[in-house]
């Protein structure tokens, strides 16, 4: 309840900052809003890595991305005017989806290749930080000098500032409010995560991978669901999609940070080895998340106006893949 109340207010402040800084909703959603709502998740992944639970650390990181993508499909159901991906199509969100697919594919390749580690860290972990920040620079440049524009329709909601751009010195109040709201969301997210972790410890029938993917991941992703729905209700559709897709790009860094926190070698191969007897759960999770993101990107490109229950093929497909993944992971 606190996450719902504070997350809604935090979204309103983020929307104002997007206008007043001139950054735009997609960039603010990917950086400020995405990072703030992701902090509980990174805390859960690092804690699991330090505790020597590589499967849970990775499953929470990637499972959070899958859950948040599914949350975007749920948020699509709350926007009744048109398909959300049709209305919120923007070059920035598409580029962030491409960046996410690339980083996830890199993780999949890493887990499928021989184990390499220097000082207990796989070389791909620092590379992920470089790729992520390079991707943000690319998105920012594309916004400033676009080489492609989505076709405008009656249902298109472009990112049009409601407030004039102002010097940063005049926005300290907004920045402090955002930081305060973010701190409350982080604390609540950690409390919820701790509760779920305790449940997993007492009822371990679900398994480490499935528990990380569908319990701690969903629990730590609740702020993203709240902020996305709040953004849609404000009419900030680009912020809603950008907060999820950009936040998902940020969430891939959970895996890199977890690898640094895990001191027994590469966490990617530790997780793959731990599941070798029962199936590569984390690799299945990554592959399914890539498929979900590809569907989302397809929806942003194709821009179906309406579909089943007012949502497009991409949201329908994302929900089907996620529910199927839930069944597969529970069995594995």
UniProtKB/TrEMBL annotation:
Alphabetic keyword roster: Membrane, Transmembrane, Transmembrane helix
Annotated protein name in UniProt: Inner membrane protein YrbG
Localisation per UniProt entry: Membrane
Positions with biased composition (Basic and acidic residues): 152-166
Gene coding for it: yrbG_4
Superkingdom field: Bacteria
Membrane found in the keyword field: yes
Gene3D superfamilies, sorted: NCX, central ion-binding region
Region described as Disordered: 147-167
């Amino acid at each position: 309840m606190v996450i719902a109340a504070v997350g809604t207010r935090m979204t309103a402040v983020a929307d104002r900052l997007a206008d007043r800084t001139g950054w735009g909703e997609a960039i603010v959603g990917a950086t400020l809003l995405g990072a703030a709502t992701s902090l509980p998740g990174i805390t859960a992944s690092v804690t699991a890595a330090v505790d020597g639970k590589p499967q849970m650390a990775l499953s929470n990181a990637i499972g959070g991305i899958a859950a948040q993508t599914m949350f975007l499909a749920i948020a699509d159901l709350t926007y009744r005017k048109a398909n959300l991906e049709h209305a919120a199509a923007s070059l920035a969100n598409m580029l962030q989806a491409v960046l996410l697919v690339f980083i996830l594919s890199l993780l999949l390749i890493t887990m499928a290749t021989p184990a390499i580690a220097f000082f207990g860290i796989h070389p791909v972990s620092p590379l992920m930080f470089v790729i992520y920040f390079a991707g943000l620079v690319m998105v920012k440049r594309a916004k400033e000098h676009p080489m492609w524009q989505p076709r405008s329709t009656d249902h298109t909601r472009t990112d049009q500032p409601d407030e004039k751009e102002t010097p940063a010195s005049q926005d300290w109040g907004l920045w402090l409010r955002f930081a305060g709201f973010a701190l409350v969301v982080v604390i609540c997210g950690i409390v919820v995560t701790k509760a779920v972790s305790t449940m997993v410890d007492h009822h371990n029938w679900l398994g480490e991978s499935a528990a990380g993917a569908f319990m701690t991941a969903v629990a730590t992703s609740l702020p993203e669901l709240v902020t996305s729905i709040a953004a849609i209700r404000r009419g900030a559709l680009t912020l809603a999609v950008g907060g999820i897709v950009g936040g998902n790009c940020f969430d891939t860094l959970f895996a890199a940070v977890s690898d640094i926190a895990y001191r027994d070698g590469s966490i990617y191969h530790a997780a793959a080895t731990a599941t070798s007897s029962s199936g590569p759960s984390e690799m299945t999770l990554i592959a399914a998340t890539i498929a979900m993101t590809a569907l989302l990107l397809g929806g942003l490109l194709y821009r179906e106006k309406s579909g089943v229950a007012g949502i497009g093929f991409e949201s329908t497909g994302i929900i089907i893949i996620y529910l199927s993944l839930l069944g597969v992971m529970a069995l594995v």
